[in-house]
Write a sequence for this structure.
């Protein structure tokens, strides 16, 4: 069983993603607790129902993909979703979604609303390992071998605590508790970058490792990388390799990961930094190729960074208030006579007379109270604007909702 999840704000882009025509087929499933007739409206409704919750990410997008060896795909998905909702306390939460068929694989996407009727938010702590536990239970039930997992020991321990020792024994009998933890070849972010640029990260890693073995010093490494279509530049956290698609890769991580995958022995980051020490590098993205300094260790402040030389308000840099800097300070304030910086704002506040500080505090408190009242009015207006019977009822249109507690 394969599952994946992402939490976010929802929106039309999410609904369009679920309806993408690149799939062989798309079947919109019957929603729960929602009245809109189409998927776009259903996702919008989920977002509207979350207005009273204290979260900026009220939607939970989850997908479940049963193994091809399972003949009863529908039954496996039903079982997985049942266990999943029990695990996360989502049995009464509204959702919508779609079933996709792509490359002969039938899988299901759902978008759950995370805000409960009382304004509380569903707890998703450790959601990855909890979803893996659900998948192991379904694999055991349908007679599949367990999928290797780096969390196998923790999952087995929790299965015993949940009253499912037979599944824990199944994991142990399959040797899952003693195997080396598997490492994914790509992180989700790296996979998205690879899909966007069309350049395989594995090829970039292999080329960087070949360039490393073909060189003995920093200049030689730069030449060997260039011969393989890669450019060596200075980055914010250290030297980076820029591929043909413009993607940047930290050279220490690139060489280290490639060497670990090749023979199991990782080339230390310190060895890579030592080879590049003192090598003049241009800034990544610098079109004129001007030298901006030697290869920098991780954490070194680069020109143009906030607080560094050439940064906003720094010597010779850009002022925050206008182009060209000049008399503008980094916070937009004017410099004093002789180029002196203005006093720190907190110091200026501390020098105010006691009666001035008291009056200022009272004004700020009044603004905060008015802001809270304004937010409550916005929530009430949004609920009333739904116009579908949910303004004074719960998400299923049943029962009188209690007025929300004040902020």
């Amino acid at each position: 069983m394969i599952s994946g999840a992402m939490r976010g704000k929802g929106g039309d882009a999410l609904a369009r993603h679920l309806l993408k025509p690149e799939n062989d087929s798309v079947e919109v499933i019957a929603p729960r607790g929602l009245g809109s007739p189409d998927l776009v409206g259903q996702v919008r409704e989920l977002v509207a129902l979350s207005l009273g919750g204290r979260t900026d990410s009220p939607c939970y997008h989850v997908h479940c993909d049963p193994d091809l060896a399972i003949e009863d795909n529908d039954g496996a998905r039903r079982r997985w979703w049942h266990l999943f909702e029990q695990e996360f306390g989502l049995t009464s939460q509204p959702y919508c979604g779609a079933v996709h068929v792509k490359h002969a694989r039938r899988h299901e996407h759902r978008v759950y609303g995370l805000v409960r009727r009382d304004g509380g938010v569903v707890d998703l702590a450790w959601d990855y390992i909890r979803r893996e536990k659900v998948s192991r239970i379904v694999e055991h039930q349908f007679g599949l071998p367990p999928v290797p997992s780096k969390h196998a020991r923790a999952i087995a321990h929790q299965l015993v605590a949940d009253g499912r020792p037979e599944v824990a024994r199944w994991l142990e009998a399959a040797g899952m508790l003693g195997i080396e933890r598997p490492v994914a070849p790509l992180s989700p972010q790296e996979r998205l970058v690879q899909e966007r640029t069309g350049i395989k990260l594995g090829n970039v890693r292999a080329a960087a490792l070949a360039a490393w073995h073909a060189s003995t010093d920093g200049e030689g490494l730069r030449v060997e990388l260039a011969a393989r279509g890669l450019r060596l530049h200075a980055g914010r956290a250290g030297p980076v390799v820029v591929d043909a698609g413009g993607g940047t890769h930290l050279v220490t991580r690139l060489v280290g990961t490639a060497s670990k995958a090749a023979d199991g022995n990782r080339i230390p980051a310190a060895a890579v930094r030592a080879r590049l020490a003192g090598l003049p590098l241009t800034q990544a993205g610098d079109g004129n190729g001007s030298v901006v300094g030697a290869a920098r260790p991780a954490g070194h402040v680069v020109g143009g960074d906030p607080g560094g030389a050439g940064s906003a308000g720094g010597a010779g840099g850009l002022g925050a208030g206008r182009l060209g800097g000049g008399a503008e300070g980094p916070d937009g304030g004017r410099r004093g006579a002789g180029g002196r910086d203005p006093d720190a704002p907190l110091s200026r506040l501390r020098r105010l007379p006691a009666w001035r500080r008291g009056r200022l505090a009272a004004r700020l408190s009044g603004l905060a109270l008015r802001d809270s009242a304004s937010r409550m009015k916005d929530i009430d207006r949004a609920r009333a604007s739904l116009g579908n019977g949910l303004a004074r009822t719960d998400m299923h249109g049943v029962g009188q909702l209690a007025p929300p507690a004040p902020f």
Notes: The first strand starts at residue 2 and ends at 8. The chain has a mean pLDDT of 80. The chain is about 40% helix and 15% strand. Residues 2-144 form a domain with the BirA Bifunctional Protein; domain 2 fold (CATH 3.30.930.30).
